[in-house]
């Protein structure tokens, strides 16, 4: 990700693409962090003995996973949109 950021900011070619590339990089970073944090409540879900909170923890796991996938889709869409704006 750092190499991608350096390639976007350091080059003077295609300045129209820079905002889209940096936005996509931020979305990918947020998706990476939420995917990493997903294992914390999932470990709690596996070790949970009490059935009272098990459903809530599973719901939280699904929400973190959906946020992570959504960030990846948004980042990919920003890359495609930026390439479209840069070459047209």
List the main descriptive attributes of the protein structure presented here.
about 90 residues; 4 helices; elongated
Question: Can you summarize this structure?
Answer:
The chain is 82% helix and 0% strand. The protein has 88 residues and is mainly alpha-helical.
Written overview of the protein:
- This protein is mostly helical and 88 residues long.
- It contains 4 helices and no strands.
- The chain has helices at 2-10, 18-37, 39-47, 54-87.
- The radius of gyration is 18 Å and the shape is elongated.
- The two termini are 26 Å apart.
- The model has no long low-confidence stretch (mean pLDDT 85).
Number of strands: 0
Helix content: over 70%
Which residues sit in consecutive blocks of at least 5 with pLDDT less than 50?
none
User: What are the secondary-structure elements, in order, as H or E?
Assistant: HHHH
Mean pLDDT: 85
User: In this structure, how is the largest beta sheet organized?
Assistant: none
Shape, per Cα inertia axes:
elongated
- As a whole number of angstroms, the C-alpha radius of gyration is 18 Å
- Strand proportion, as a percent range, falls in under 5%
Please identify the structural class as seen in this structure. Answer: mainly alpha
């Amino acid at each position: 990700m750092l190499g991608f950021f350096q390639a976007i900011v350091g080059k003077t070619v295609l300045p129209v693409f820079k905002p889209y590339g940096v936005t996509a990089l931020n979305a990918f970073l947020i998706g990476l962090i939420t995917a990493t944090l997903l294992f914390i409540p999932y470990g709690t879900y596996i070790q949970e003995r009490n059935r009272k909170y098990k459903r809530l923890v599973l719901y939280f796991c699904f929400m973190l996973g959906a946020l992570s996938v959504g960030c990846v889709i948004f980042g990919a869409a920003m890359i495609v949109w930026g390439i479209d704006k840069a070459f047209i």
